[in-house]
Specification:
The structure holds two protein chains of two kinds. By secondary structure, chain A is of the alpha+beta class. Chain A has three domains: 242 residues, Peptidase S8/S53 domain (Rossmann fold, 3-Layer(aba) Sandwich); 122 residues, no CATH class; 125 residues, Sandwich (Jelly Rolls). Chain A has 13 helices and 26 strands. In chain A, helix 2 packs across helix 4, helix 3 packs antiparallel against helix 4 and helix 10 runs parallel beside helix 11. By secondary structure, chain B is mainly beta. Chain B has a domain of 137 residues: Porin, CATH 2.40.160.20. The chains are: A alpha+beta, B mainly beta.
């Protein structure tokens, strides 16, 4: 299948973040101070601090004091960020543990002495309880305080670990379900599987952002559930935020074959819901057939809710009949040129995918298309020195057994520039409908057609497909216009729902998870929530969710918002 | 004449000093399926001596116990208040003797009027997410067994201590309705011992 160049996209990790960046023009909050972090702790860097220790002071404070003394306040502040230490006006918040006075057992008198010592050093006592004195102490005085005979240990205050909850949870009303006891559920456990590329960092999320008993399964050849990819972890966080009582499974894959293995496993597990924040291009005819859509359909037919992302391709998509008025063999696009162009930032990889409506017949038993006979080729250009320069071409043969697809991938250029494709008719006996997807673009492509940009397998009839709206106001504009739109190629309305995007996760940072990838787990979690708390059947749950959805756009179900923004409250 | 007829039917010896007693008691009640479900129960009874050691009677009991949150699991009741009011006929065996203390054992059966009202906070929580919930508990036949003693505190007045276990099946239905679409999920609740309850208390008994 590789020769057919089926490509999958990870929505939010790359496209979503990139989309957020280029649409908003602002970096994510979490990225702003990271360079300072790495600079401060990089061994051997200018800011590196000689390892040191103090028998009565926590090492982080020891290093802070040493950095303050040796490299000055700015270096100490940079270091403090790496250890969660807050410095204000040259003072740091610490806890001094008082030691009992020799011969005594009570620490109360010692604590009073320690508090007085802190004041004499220019500090301020914030609170005192038994033998613990919490205070703001000048960084320069830390060593002196630690050296006091009645201070047994000096450390940072303990702090609760903040939980990151998607803003979408309250938006859709899932928070109101938290205290509800399940109503007549006969010992049934609601099981939800997040199927993704990787769950990097999931171990550190267990017990806080993910359930402690999360089950992880890798279908990759290397059996690596993390796979250097945190996209799945962020999705799983949202599922857990929405439906915290569900039993959660994480499964990852990297290829079509591994996808099939994962789906076979899913079919055997009896999951209630699968959350699938991924999409594929050139992997099917857009009518719900093809191997990936077939996988989704099988899971759905098995009684599991397959909740899948619609895609982030509304601004990266063209579809239209092959048009060649000058009969030179090259397609002319609606703007009168033979070049379908887009802009790509410097060094950002860009790709282009072409398919046309000559998929032939899909055999659900052999998982093959056959009967393609029309042949078109794809040519890839970069705008360099004032002219289009041909960079690559995809000219696969069509002899009846090949899929009607061409693709060119992962080209980069050192400067921000325009890229373009041209489509050439090699051997066609009828007018075919040409569809182009690109990625890497920093804005809408020329001749952009948002309609029918829904990806595979969101086109499957059984897929509960999800588009994106802003978590705060249910709007697409200006940050979520990338959300793929229906209908499917055979005219079915898609997506089914839209859901919050631009939300917070521990994996991606505050309000930094964009894309239909972020929206999908909100819907998956909503389905799981109703399965978990009620004995309603899946079909009834979907009816209820459709009825409760907040209608957006045109009245009724439409190809942009589906039934509307998911909503589980009254 | 009445004593003789009853004695004939029951085949026992006619008591030398037959009497009619009425009692009323109140105290503790618990729904035995839920360890934390307990509150109060009251009971009233009328007894008629058949022999020196055997009596028949009728007992009306009412117990009201809160069913805790999280109790609902398929066929069980949800958080709320369960009220069981059995009316039962019983046969009582009284320890013969002339002392002030009269222990007894009793057993019988009858019919119980039952109801379950969902906790207001639980119903409100469901309402908040757009669902109404309802549970109906059917009336059932019951059997019970009890024990106690009467302590004479006057010529006709007794201090009474009484405990009884009521064995009753649970039979009922539940309905969850989406208030937006009207979609419903329904099911039944059943269990051979689902409404078993314990009532124990103290009271007074008067002998005519």
């Amino acid at each position: 299948m590789n020769r057919r160049a089926i490509r999958f996209l990870v929505f939010a990790a790359a496209a979503g973040l990139a989309a957020a960046a280029w649409i908003s023009g602002e970096p994510g909050d979490g990225q702003a101070f990271r360079p300072a972090l790495s600079e401060a702790v990089q061994p051997g860097s200018a800011n590196a601090v000689v390892e040191t220790s103090h028998p009565k002071m926590e090492q982080a404070l020891t290093r802070l004091a040493e950095t303050w003394k040796v490299r000055g306040a700015d270096a100490a502040r940079a270091f403090s960020h790496t250890r969660g230490i807050d410095i204000e006006d040259g003072r740091v918040r610490v806890v001094a543990e008082a030691a009992a006075i020799a011969g005594g057992t009570s620490v109360f008198p010692s604590a009073r002495v320690v508090a007085a010592r802190i004041s004499s050093l220019g500090g301020t006592v914030a609170s005192s309880f038994r033998g613990l004195v919490e205070a703001f102490v000048p960084v320069a005085a830390l060593e002196s305080l630690a050296g006091h005979p009645l201070v047994s240990y000096l450390r940072r205050p303990l702090r609760p670990r903040p939980m990151t909850v998607s803003e979408g949870v309250a938006r859709i009303g899932a928070n109101l379900w938290g205290d509800l006891s399940p109503f007549h559920i006969s010992g049934r456990e609601t099981k939800i599987c997040v199927l993704d590329l990787g769950f990097m960092g999931y171990e550190s999320l267990k017990g806080s952002e993910l359930p402690s008993d999360v089950v992880v399964r890798s279908f990759r050849a290397d059996r690596d559930p993390e796979a250097g990819e945190d996209h799945g972890a962020a999705c799983a966080e949202i599922v857990y935020d929405v439906a915290p009582g569900a039993k959660m499974f994480l499964a990852n894959f990297s290829t079509e074959g591994e996808h099939r293995d994962a789906v076979n496993w899913i079919l055997s597990q009896g999951f209630d819901v699968v959350s699938y924040s991924m999409g594929w291009i050139n992997a099917g005819d857009g009518k719900g057939t093809g191997p990936i859509s077939q996988d989704a359909q099988q899971v759905s037919d098995n009684g599991t809710a397959w909740v899948g992302a619609a895609g982030n391709s509304a601004l990266s998509h063209f579809i239209g009949d092959f048009n060649d008025p000058d009969d030179d063999g090259w397609m002319e696009f609606p703007n009168g040129t033979e070049f379908l162009s887009w802009t790509v930032p410097a060094l950002v990889p860009t790709s282009a995918f072409l398919n046309w409506d000559d998929w032939g017949t899909w055999n659900p038993l052999t998982y093959e298309y056959s009967g393609s006979s029309q042949d078109f080729d794809l040519y890839f250009y970069v705008f360099d020195n004032g002219a289009w320069r041909l960079m690559d071409q995809s000219v696969g043969l069509q002899t009846g057994t090949q899929w009607p697809t061409e693709d060119l991938s992962e080209w980069t250029f050192p400067q921000t520039t325009s890229w373009a494709v041209r489509i050439r008719r090699k051997n066609a006996t009828r007018i075919c409908r040409m569809e182009v997807f690109v990625d890497g673009n920093s804005g809408p492509i020329a001749n952009d057609v948002p309609q029918e940009s829904i990806l595979v397998p969101a086109d499957a009839a059984g897929s509960i497909s999800v588009g994106a709206v802003d978590w705060s106001n249910d709007q697409r504009e200006p940050y979520h216009v990338y959300s793929s739109e229906g209908p499917t190629k055979d005219g079915r309305i898609k997506p089914e729902f839209c859901a919050p995007s631009g939300v917070s996760t521990k994996s991606f940072g505050p309000r930094n998870f964009y894309g239909t990838s972020a929206s999908t787990p909100h819907v998956a979690g909503a389905v799981a929530l109703l399965r978990q708390k009620t004995s309603l059947s899946l079909s009834k749950i979907l009816e209820i969710l459709a009825a409760r959805a907040v209608d957006l756009g045109d009245p009724g179900k439409d190809d942009i918002y589906g039934a509307g923004r998911i909503n589980v409250k009254k | 004449m009445r004593r003789a007829s009853l004695a004939l039917v029951l085949g026992g010896a006619v008591a030398a000093s037959a009497a009619v007693r009425v009692s009323i008691m109140g105290g503790y009640a618990a729904a035995m399926e839920w360890s934390s479900a307990h509150d109060f129960g009251i009971s009233a009874a009328a007894e008629l001596d058949l022999t020196n050691f055997l009596a028949v009677g009728a007992r009306l009991t009412h117990s009201s116990v809160p069913i805790p949150a999280g109790a609902s699991s398929g066929t069980e009741l949800s958080q709320g208040r369960l009220r069981i009011t059995p009316v039962a006929l019983f046969l009582q065996f009284r320890w013969p003797g002339a002392g002030r203390l009269k222990p007894y054992l009793a057993a019988g059966g009858g019919y119980s009027f039952n109801s379950h009202v969902l906790a207001a906070e639980a119903a409100a929580a469901w309402d908040l997410v757009g669902f109404s919930v309802e549970e109906k508990v059917e009336n059932t036949t019951v059997v019970f067994a009890g024990a106690g003693f009467d302590l004479a505190v006057g010529p006709r007045l007794f201090f009474n201590v009484h405990a009884q276990i009521i064995v009753a099946p649970l039979s009922g239905t539940w309905t969850l309705t989406d208030t937006v679409t009207g979609e419903k999920a329904t099911g039944s609740m059943s269990g051979s011992n689902g409404l078993n309850s314990l009532v124990a208390g103290i009271g007074l008994k008067y002998q005519f």
